[in-house]
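Changelog note: in this version the structure field was regenerated for every chain. One regenerated record is shown below for reference.
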Amino acid sequence: MTDISELLGVLAHEMRTSIAAILGYQELLAEGIYGTVDERGQEPLDRIAYSARQLLHLIDGVQEISSPPSKRLSVNVEPFEPAEVLRTCLLNAQADALGRNVKLETSVPDALPGMMGDPDRFCRAIDLALAAAIKTSHGATLHVGADQTPNGLEVTIDNTGLDPDKDSPIVVNEEDARKMTGAGLRLAIVREIAHQMHGDLNLTADASGTTVVLRFGEA
């Protein structure tokens, strides 16, 4: 029988090819190559791009967490500006948030200390964490913040509708895997990325909702 990681690798390659084509045509449409796109048409184009990128993040993430370390995607370590990546992720998430009647309020500093790490993985983690929060928080106002701490960078998403039990990113046995939600899968990938970047993911619940706390260290 074919090893599951090999099967996922083939499937991931085929899906990436199709999604790359979708993103390519989306960009051509957005740039007006096939005619002018009015303001009403821009939002669905943005949502197509956002959804396609989410699929890419999920494909890469599922392949990675299900593969042995020796077969995982290589980690690229370089200096990057986390505040700039965060702002881009928040901008990309706006279309999804609007579609679910979710408001994003942000308190991300104009500048944060530069980090050494994998900016693509960092971006993937933020995108997936935001998607999990938005997916479970219809009609809510989410507060997204970022602060430098003695141990690295901390990103928080407050007031989400995530359930720390149902949407737990921790899979201990087969029963946990069968019960995993879409939000839980996203958070499991986020948690793995945070671990690779010397950090962690935690969910804390109180009367106002569940807070996602993401911590990133340096390579």
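Spot check on this record: The radius of gyration is 18 Å. The mean pLDDT is 86.
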